[in-house]
Design goal:
The chain has 305 residues and is an alpha/beta fold. Strands 1-2-3-4-5 form a five-stranded mixed β-sheet, with helices on both faces. A hairpin with a 2-residue loop joins strand 1 and strand 2. The chain is elongated, with a radius of gyration of 32 Å.
Length: 305
């Protein structure tokens, strides 16, 4: 669990102390004695049934009754005088469920606002002294904010994880290192290439070279419009790394902008094998491997025409 969701840190951040917890229990005991907690939950469901999200998340009456029982426990814990790590962990669990069910922030915060209104009316109707009312309301608002934060934080974390996973999947799809001939690998690059993507290119390329024992690696960058100096330097590093693994690298399709960047970088381009087109790179790769592919050379050259 992250440090921000550790109970001591949360209580300190939201300025919730033992006096606040005692005040919450005072309000909770008064509402329980008057049968107000269940009445609040029943009223809340009357409101919820009018919302467009209700039939999406509550398909049967059995589901409604089950969730109502869980909410009764939830609010009984809320108005207790013990807020420990188990309390926070359960709130985290609730937030994860909301995130997995794709609950929108709109209905969640509208629902919390409705609970706030209903419980405020219930507390006022219990006949507590004015001095107790101030303490109960102050503590109630603090803990409502803490609970809302924990849930919304889990929804945000879930969304971030989905973005990261989607990004990884896109990287996987955008780095198709393909064996096109015995001993020859091809990687066509298209779109934006940044430092993170070049690191992914390095990792996948070296892994495929190790798997296939390729002797030639063709990296076609004709679909890459521009690169910065860091990316250009990484291209050079990729050619050096493949050479260390016994595999020659050819970079094809270098645009004028990329060529200018390489020169301004001061890269030792004399060590980098380049061609103007992918066709030229494949012909060069086949010619380099000619002693081992002589038997299939005619077919390969025909495929390039």
């Amino acid at each position: 669990m992250s440090q921000s969701l550790e109970v001591t840190s949360l209580l300190e951040r939201f300025d919730i102390n033992q006096d606040d917890l005692a005040a919450l229990k005072t309000g909770g005991d008064a509402m329980k004695a008057a049968g107000k907690v269940n009445a609040v939950i029943d009223s809340w469901y009357v409101w919820l049934e009018k919302q467009p999200e209700f039939p999406i998340f509550f398909s049967t009456q059995e589901t409604v009754e089950r969730v109502k029982r869980l909410q009764t426990v939830y609010w009984e814990n809320f108005f207790s005088d013990e807020i420990d790590q188990d309390y926070v962990d359960y709130r985290v669990h609730i937030g994860q469920i909301h995130a997995q069910r794709d609950l929108s922030n709109l209905i969640y915060f509208a629902a919390m606002a409705r609970f706030n209104e209903l419980f405020s009316e219930a507390i006022l109707s219990c006949g507590l002294p004015a001095s107790d009312l101030d303490r109960v309301f102050n503590a109630f608002n603090k803990l409502i904010m803490l609970d809302a934060f924990v849930t919304s934080d889990q929804v945000a974390q879930f969304a971030r994880r989905r973005v990261i996973e989607s990004g990884k999947a896109m990287l996987e799809m955008s780095t198709p290192v393909t064996s096109i001939w015995d001993g020859i690998l091809l990687l066509p690059l298209v779109g934006v290439v940044d430092s993170q993507r070049t690191q992914d290119i390095m990792d996948k390329s070296l892994s495929r070279i190790a798997e296939t024992r390729a002797r030639m690696f063709v990296m076609d960058i004709s679909g890459v419009v521009t690169v910065d100096t860091a990316v250009a330097n990484n291209f050079i590093r990729i050619t050096q790394a493949t050479r260390l693994m016994g595999c020659d690298c050819i970079i094809s399709g270098i645009s004028p902008n990329v060529a200018r960047t390489l020169v301004e970088l001061g890269a030792n381009v004399g060590e980098v094998r380049t061609t103007a087109t992918l066709r030229d790179a494949l012909q060069l790769a086949l010619a380099t491997l000619e002693p081992t592919v002589r038997g299939g050379r005619g077919q390969g050259e025909g495929a390039l025409r």
